[in-house]
Write a structure and sequence with these properties.
Multidrug efflux transporter AcrB transmembrane fold, single chain, alpha+beta, Alpha-Beta Plaits, five-stranded antiparallel beta sheet, four-stranded antiparallel beta sheet
Length: about 725
């Protein structure tokens, strides 16, 4: 790996201007093209084999015009009744304007015969049902914004309007610009404290931004040819920005060490890319593999989150290996300009201090260190034993979004359950009485507020109707209601077997998504852990070290799950992060978080172990190697982790509860991994198992390919160019 990276680095350094300018032009061109084409993100809830998917398939087959569902446009009269002449005129104008828009299939007015149930009992709120020609995966943001503008054109102080459904959701994604700005600001501060130079600080920031712009542009372009989750760009931003800065930090740190050792800038940049760049390539590839492993779940929504984030990581790796070395060589000795006066890191008496002192303490007290580390992680992980997956709570979105406004108006006028009605799809097998029986039994269930009249297909083979729960879509009580309908109520109503009933709709779909993820999580864990063990086995030629790393990473991820459960599901401190109370842990979060965290933890694991392995080759003693490796790597690891934590934590300010969950979970997980795990538990375990750390059976040693991540020995006999 090292010789190839060395040749690549020297090539881009020789053509530094072309490399730097070429990357800038590429990033700008992709960004401009993506802006011109537009974005078209949507959540694909197709779940083959699940009951909600069976309902969707039945609707698509027998009610093709209704497969996309409807989008409610809510109206509220601040004074008087919604049926007053003035308010009726405003609504009728809105309905006519929407009907005239291209892409609108039909609009059902609350004042029409079909829309009698679309006026609240109090007479203050009503809604029009809008059916679009384009489904969630086909509706562009520009088209959605135009339709929302038309739907809310009559809004005033006396007349409120808001758009729900997937039309409203398409324009309700909270902005991430403030989060990105805060994350970059904190990262810049950490880098200045780490490097003591403004110029050196700017290298990782510029590199990360270059990769992020390119990655997001590619994801946006891809959204126009395939369905990509609405959360994907935000998640890709978090991951791309975090790893982009971290990867560049590792390379810049090695480059500055080369300059301090007397190497010329070109040589130092080439060696840094070939050595630290090897660790970046290895760790980044592990992250990508873990993210792509999400495809094994067979869940389209989760798969798009995985490969979108993988694109961001891939561009971060490419920019770090081809843009950064050219930039470092171009800047040359100017790297140390604009120095910031900071205290010296070395103690005047020359005694062990800082991380070296900490490393000695851990090595002297390995049992205490390991015990404390394990106990802390188990305490943090304990709440996860009660984790229950659920649906995103749209009632916690920012109040200025269309989705939140429509949610509140719907709850106020028709009850909170109207925000997530259940679609009951019935396949008729020669028993017309099945539908009345189902309506009666479902309507009598304690969790159901109301049931609408049924609609029979033209061929008479299917029927559909809606059941409105008493509770919100995100409520665990609603989950219980759906499961009860499926397991008890519907089987009882169609006991003769002459009809099949299925519960569908988005609420039921998210419940099925949680069940599907719970079933697939063990498989993903097994695959990712196995792959990481194999990769570490190749890299460090040891049986014990990969197994230790896998175990530590699993405990670390469990601790992150515990924190997520404690904060969001149990609601402790929820108000501090902008939530009104507890919200469910969104169903796809554990699966995606595991892939991300297990991959990211490899960054620090690889960096620590390469330092320990290098120290062992010099000193030959395992205990001394652990001390030297920890003392030499801890500062860089904690700096990199601080940056990653700052980037992830900044997204807690985002108004989307799902993004908040990712922000809290990833920030705490990285902090735990870089402190308790990497600087306490791992070195303590390595000291305790020092006799076996580097043991490898002879037959396996001969069979394994040689993979030296940083390849420092490559330069021991190679003269500087």
């Amino acid at each position: 790996m090292t010789p190839r990276l060395d040749r690549l680095a020297r090539f881009v350094i020789r053509h530094r201007r072309v490399a730097v300018i070429g990357w800038i032009v590429t990033a700008v061109a992709i960004t401009v093209l993506a802006g011109a084409v537009g974005k078209q993100f949507a959540d694909d809830l197709s779940l083959p084999g699940q009951d909600s998917q069976a309902a969707t398939d039945l609707v698509e087959q027998h009610f093709p015009g209704q497969i996309n569902g409807t989008n409610p446009v809510l109206f509220k009269a601040e004074k008087g009744a919604i049926t007053d002449q003035q308010n009726q005129e405003l609504i009728n104008r809105t309905v006519k304007s929407l009907e005239a828009e291209e892409g609108v299939s039909s609009v059902v007015s609350p004042f029409s015969k079909q829309g009698q149930a679309q006026i609240s009992k109090e007479g203050k709120i009503a809604y029009a049902s809008v059916t679009l020609a384009d489904g969630p995966g086909e509706l562009s943001v520009a088209e959605a914004e135009n339709l929302v503008d038309v739907a809310t054109a009559e809004e005033s102080d006396q007349f409120q309007a808001a758009v729900g459904g997937y039309l409203g959701q398409q324009v309700s994604s909270p902005s991430t610009e403030s989060s990105e700005a805060i994350g970059l600001t904190v990262a810049a501060i950490v880098l200045v404290l780490t490097f003591g130079s403004v110029i050196a600080m700017g290298m990782p920031i510029l590199t990360a931004l270059m990769g992020l712009l390119t990655g997001l542009g590619l994801i946006t372009l891809l959204s126009n040819v395939t369905t990509i989750s609405t959360t994907s760009p935000t998640l890709a931003t978090m991951i791309g920005l975090g790893v982009g800065i971290d990867y560049a930090l590792f390379i810049v740190t090695r480059h500055r060490s080369g300059l301090a050792a007397g190497l010329e800038p070109d040589e130092a940049a080439a060696r840094a890319t070939a050595t630290a760049g090897g660790a970046v390539l290895f760790a980044g590839t592990t992250v990508i593999i873990a993210l792509l492993a999400l495809g094994l779940a067979g869940i389209p929504l989760v798969w798009t989150l995985g490969y979108a984030a993988a694109i961001a990581v891939l561009t971060a790796i490419l920019v770090s290996l081809t843009f950064l070395p050219a930039l470092l060589a171009w800047v040359g000795h100017g790297m140390e300009r604009l120095r910031v006066p900071l205290p010296h890191s070395t103690h005047p008496d020359g005694k062990a201090h800082g991380w070296a002192r900490w490393a000695n303490w851990v090595a002297d007290h390995p049992w205490i260190s390991a015990t404390v580390g394990v106990v802390l992680l188990l305490i943090l992980a304990w709440p996860a034993t009660n984790m229950r997956l659920g649906q995103e709570d749209l009632g916690e979105l920012p109040e200025d979004t269309q989705t939140r406004q429509a949610y509140d108006l719907t709850s106020e006028g028709f009850g909170v359950g109207e925000n997530g009605p259940l679609l009951i799809a019935v396949k008729l097998n020669g028993d017309p009485q099945a539908v009345p029986d189902l309506i009666r039994e479902i309507g009598a269930d304690e969790g159901i507020k109301a049931v609408t009249p049924a609609e029979t297909s033209k061929d008479g083979k299917a029927a559909i109707f809606t059941a409105v729960p008493n509770t919100s879509p995100s409520s665990f009580t609603t989950q219980d209601t759906v499961l009860r309908l499926r397991d008890e109520v519907i089987p009882k109503a169609v006991a003769n077997g002459k009809a099949e009933g299925h519960v569908g709709g988005s609420t039921a779909g998210y419940i099925d998504l949680g069940d599907e993820i719970s079933q697939n999580l063990p498989l993903l864990i097994a695959v990712v852990v196995l792959l990481s063990v194999v990769l570490l086995l190749f890299a460090f030629r040891s049986i014990v070290i990969p197994l230790q790393a896998a175990l530590m990473n699993l405990i670390s991820v469990a601790a992150a799950y515990g924190i997520i459960t404690f904060v969001f599901q149990e609601g402790h401190g929820a108000s501090l992060i902008g939530l009104d109370g507890s919200v469910p842990v969104v169903s796809f979060l554990p699966l995606v978080m595991f892939a991300i965290l297990f991959g990211l933890s490899m960054d620090y694991q690889v960096f620590l172990l390469t330092q320990i392995k290098e120290a062992r080759s010099k000193f030959g003693k395992d205990r001394h190697a652990v001390i030297e490796g920890l003392a030499g790597s801890a500062r860089v690891i904690t700096s990199a982790a601080a940056i990653m934590v700052a980037v992830f934590a900044s997204f807690i300010l985002n108004g989307d509860p799902v993004v908040k969950q990712f922000g809290v979970g990833l920030a705490f997980a990285v902090a735990i991994d870089a402190t308790i795990v990497r600087c306490l538990l791992v070195p303590a375990m390595l000291v305790l198992t020092s006799r076996w750390n580097w043991w490898l059976p002879g037959w396996l040693d001969r069979a394994l390919p040689r993979l030296d991540i940083e390849g420092n020995e490559y330069y021991e006999t190679r003269p500087a160019n």
